Predict the 3D structure of the following.
Amino acid sequence: MKLHYAGKYSGNLESLPKREHHENSVQFKEPDDMKKFAVIINILGIIITAVLVFTVTYISRENLSFTGIIIALLSLIPHEFLHALCFKKDVYMYNNLKHGMMFVVGTEDMSKSHFIFMSLCPNIVFGFIPFAIFLIFPNLIFFGTLGALAIGMGAGDYLNVFYTLTQVPKGAKVYNSGFHSYWYK
């Protein structure tokens, strides 16, 4: 993996890394622009986070951990770095904090399962594992807080997994080009 920090995303879809399309490629049926995608993932993220925060406070009967909140916010960059580690070639990291997003774009082919793993990897590490620890040990509110917030922050990743599971046939390869994802067989 060769990580390139591309800085603040300009809003110009044409500026994102692209590749030549495979002759049989099919674009994912997904939002056409970053703003529409950001609205969807922010709404989804707020709903997920609200449900999980309620769960943490209900189970623990205590307030959220301030340290857990800070660590969850600080996990944004490591979250994207874990995505990047799943690529073998060049991958570009952008921030779009105006729309509440950071993201990576790599254009290499991946199997369907590898693409799903790449999408979920940081959510497992920063979200699901800490939240599971909290569910086993409810007095560890730090883990519940971190997990709840990190799971909610992965809403865009879950949308990509949903599109992959519902649109990509078994045995197909998946890749990104610009803002969109594609599959081919």
